[in-house]
From TrEMBL:
<dbReference type="GO" id="GO:0008677">
    <property type="term" value="F:2-dehydropantoate 2-reductase activity"/>
</dbReference>
<dbReference type="InterPro" id="IPR050838">
    <property type="entry name" value="Ketopantoate_reductase"/>
</dbReference>
<dbReference type="InterPro" id="IPR008927">
    <property type="entry name" value="6-PGluconate_DH-like_C_sf"/>
</dbReference>
<dbReference type="Pfam" id="PF02558">
    <property type="entry name" value="ApbA"/>
</dbReference>
<dbReference type="GO" id="GO:0050661">
    <property type="term" value="F:NADP binding"/>
</dbReference>
<keyword id="KW-0521">NADP</keyword>
<dbReference type="InterPro" id="IPR013332">
    <property type="entry name" value="KPR_N"/>
</dbReference>
<comment type="similarity">
    <text>Belongs to the ketopantoate reductase family.</text>
</comment>
<protein>
    <submittedName>
        <fullName>Putative 2-dehydropantoate 2-reductase-like protein</fullName>
    </submittedName>
</protein>
<dbReference type="Pfam" id="PF08546">
    <property type="entry name" value="ApbA_C"/>
</dbReference>
<feature type="domain" description="Ketopantoate reductase N-terminal">
    <location>
        <begin position="74"/>
        <end position="192"/>
    </location>
</feature>
<dbReference type="GO" id="GO:0005739">
    <property type="term" value="C:mitochondrion"/>
</dbReference>
<feature type="domain" description="Ketopantoate reductase C-terminal">
    <location>
        <begin position="279"/>
        <end position="403"/>
    </location>
</feature>
<dbReference type="InterPro" id="IPR013752">
    <property type="entry name" value="KPA_reductase"/>
</dbReference>
<dbReference type="InterPro" id="IPR013328">
    <property type="entry name" value="6PGD_dom2"/>
</dbReference>
<keyword id="KW-0560">Oxidoreductase</keyword>
Length: 429
């Protein structure tokens, strides 16, 4: 696909530049889901039950890598599951480790004014950053990652020696396309790479400004899970017959999440999972870049005529890509949840719910830090190229956001030495 037209040939975009909680879960086809992913079974430790897990499978530890409300909420709920070993938070930032000690080595969740904390043997933190005398060799069986996609690869390099084909990694992130990137960079050998589970949370969560290891639950929701097909790069004889141990490890992780009550988790086939994920991904791909382009808070976007026009153009392009995705086969269900009208309605509704708050992407751009644009708009651009669809406006906003980051970094270098754990934005695909 050729390059998009320059700014001078797109007057609406040029004029715009010159001017300048989560949705409720939708209904899904539960019958199809249960048929494709029969993991939503009642958990039982009774050895007489047909679905009782082997004793050695009950005590596996879940590791969590992330510094956001999703990480702390998930860790809090897993810590309350007495059938598991204490959940372990992986920390590679010294200031975060200090906060853990100052806050009494516990993770908390607020539901209104009510606080619930898990610690004292149910939640632990492990330093995995530089300066450790003896790096741990403890194998990681089950890992949940809520870090932004753009820094996940760098963070995993600190623990890559603890990950292999017995590991299952659950990615609960805003973007898509990271699995392919991890396989290409960290796990090129198909026989040794981990299993993956894609996660999407519909709960509305927020930070607690008084506590680093805390999350506010504004509105309950669900954790939608999809186990990525294993072995797409393997020979057919291996693809369809993975070792029993590896199948058990992946299934055990799914069952662990599904049977942890506070997570409200369920397993779904790829189509039904995408139906839940795509509206949120569309919002992040349309509204977040708009906030950066306008350099403003969410509430000022609807009042800008040029912004609304460009947002509609972005949405139209994303809709065309979604409708052409071969993973989505049930046309009536896709139109109901991901049709152009449905996407526009959900995007506007979520924008109003944001109120006068500031975009996280804008905050990071102002700080000269990376953003996940390559896994938001960039994901759709990659899929569009595969499908032969042109998405010039999405290509344009990706360039604009990256240009803003580069400009801000140059400004900061002229004032103070630039030092950050973050990596600069580079194309992920």
């Amino acid at each position: 696909m050729g390059r998009y037209d320059p700014f001078s040939e797109r007057p609406s975009l040029r004029r715009l530049l010159d001017d300048v909680g989560e949705q409720s879960p939708y209904e899904i086809d539960s019958i199809a889901d249960k048929k494709h992913t029969p993991i939503g079974l009642t958990y039982s430790t009774d050895p007489r039950g047909p679905w009782a897990m082997p004793q050695e499978e009950e005590c596996k530890r879940v590791h969590v890598l992330g510094y956001d409300p999703r990480a702390y909420f998930i860790a809090h709920e897993l810590a309350g599951n007495l059938h598991l070993d204490p959940v372990k938070l992986l920390v590679h930032k010294k200031n975060v480790m200090r906060s853990w000690q100052l806050e009494g080595e516990q993770v908390s969740v607020w539901k209104g004014v009510q606080r619930s904390s898990q610690g004292r043997g149910r939640a632990e933190a492990e330093w995995i950053g530089r300066g450790r005398d003896e790096p741990s060799n403890e194998h990681i069986d089950q890992l949940i990652v809520t870090l932004a996609c753009g820094v996940t690869t760098t963070a995993l390099q600190n623990i890559i020696h603890r990950i292999d084909n017995r590991t299952t990694i659950c990615l609960v992130q805003d973007g898509l396309g990271l699995v392919e990137h991890l396989n290409a960079t960290l796990f090129p050998d198909p026989t040794r790479r981990p299993h993956y589970v894609l996660g999407h949370m519909s709960a509305s969560l927020g930070y607690n400004k008084q506590w680093f290891f805390g999350a506010k639950l504004r509105q309950p929701g669900k954790l939608f899970l999809h186990a990525v097909e294993r072995g797409v790069d393997l020979l057919p004889t291996l693809k369809f017959h993975p070792p029993v141990e590896r199948r058990m490890n992946a299934t055990q992780f799914l069952r662990t999440l599904v049977t942890t009550p506070g997570l409200h988790a369920g397993g779904y086939n790829l189509e039904n999972w995408l139906i839940q994920k795509l509206p949120a991904l569309v919002f992040s791909s349309v509204i977040e870049p708009m906030a950066v382009v306008l350099d403003t808070t969410y509430d000022n976007i609807p009042g800008n005529e040029h912004a609304i026009r460009l947002a509609d153009e972005l949405l139209d392009e994303l809709f065309n890509v979604i409708m052409a995705m071969p993973e989505l086969t049930n046309s009536s269900k896709v139109v109901e949840h991901c049709g152009l009208g449905a996407l526009r309605k959900k995007t506007i509704k979520r924008l109003w719910e944001k109120g006068s708050s500031q975009s996280d992407m804008l905050s990071r751009v102002r700080a000269g830090q990376w953003v996940d644009i390559d896994y938001l708009n960039g994901y759709f651009i990659k899929r569009a190229r595969e499908l032969g669809i042109k998405v010039p406006q999405n290509e344009a906003v990706v360039d604009i956001v990256k240009a803003r980051i580069a400009k801000r970094r140059n400004e900061m270098r002229n004032v103070i030495p630039f030092e950050s754990d973050d990596v600069p934005n580079k194309p992920a695909f």
